[in-house]
Fold this protein.
Amino acid sequence: MSATSYDRAAELRALDATYAGVRGLVASGVTHVPLIFRVSDQHSEPQQHTTVPAGQELAAIPIIDLGCGDHAGVVAAVRQAAAEWGFFQVTGHGVPETVMATATDAVRAFHEADGGEGSDKARLYSREPARAVKYHCNFDLYQSPVANWRDTLYLRMAPTPPDADDLPDSCRNVLFEYAHQVKNLGNTLLELLSEALGLKPSHLEDIECNQAQVLLCHYYPPCPQPKLAIGTSRHSDGGFLTILLQDEIGGLQILKEEQWVEVTPTPGAFIVNIGDLLQLISNDGFRSVEHRVLAKNVAPRVSIANFFGTHIDPTSTRIYCPIKELLSDKKLPLYRETLASDYIKHYYSIGLDAKTAISHYQL
Ligand code: OGA
Ligand code: NI
């Protein structure tokens, strides 16, 4: 069947109706990637840029030991990594390894449970923006040009914590504890990033860069034809800051000087990256960098992405613009101001496919 002779919308709806996502397809024994997931030349995936073979990168993504005791050294390393790479890994972060491991295990257990009538997955299956706890196969299934080989459990933990009863049984306590620990790490990182910009440590927290906290608990099932699909399409993150935990499978890549560079799994480390809104308010002092996740056929991959951003609250009047202290006659603003809620709405209206949202605000 050619790509044009099938009813794409009907197939997307049929997948949705299973309440079991890509995991359900794989559990049912698919041996071919269905057309809705197939990447093609019209899309930006996956062959457009070459991938640097692991071990041959010009330089590796920086790893920063937050617990090394050299505060000025840590601030300088964070400044350089956020400006040049937009991505770094952190160790010595204070989050206990057991909390990281039990969170990953709980997420895996949720995704590996069966879907269908009466299940937790069926109860939670939704893409409704207002819902704080939901499960779905691709938040942008009906907007994006290519469906991703991935399912996601979505938890909005702040500004208003969800009703504990809404969380799946297997995840409840574990993910509340995980979110609490990562929130503390997020505050530490926002302080370091404030200092790295030459501002007082509380600056980014004072302007509520951590107001909303969302956990995306991703599951990437093994893919029978990994070259024909993509785990997560290339994109940049929309919020201020992302703290990502990935398991040992690998597949995350970032775009650096037109080449895809692997983010090698580092046991015990978190990956930290700058989002679009932090690039905007830092007036390009920090960079929000495109990244993607390849599909793999070896084993399922689990990751937990923690976003600090602003909640899509239609009544919010908070405005973000390049921080005044960073501007001068020689450093003019590169972006116009935006209502926090408008930026996020704009970001979601596009769906994942390249870094497109921020250019809308460029002066
Ligand atoms: C994301 C993301 C990467 C991963 O959720 O925005 O880029 O490894 N996730 O799952
Ligand atoms: Ni991302």
Notes: Residues 144 and 224 are 22 Å apart (CA to CA). Confidence is low (pLDDT under 50) at residues 41-48.
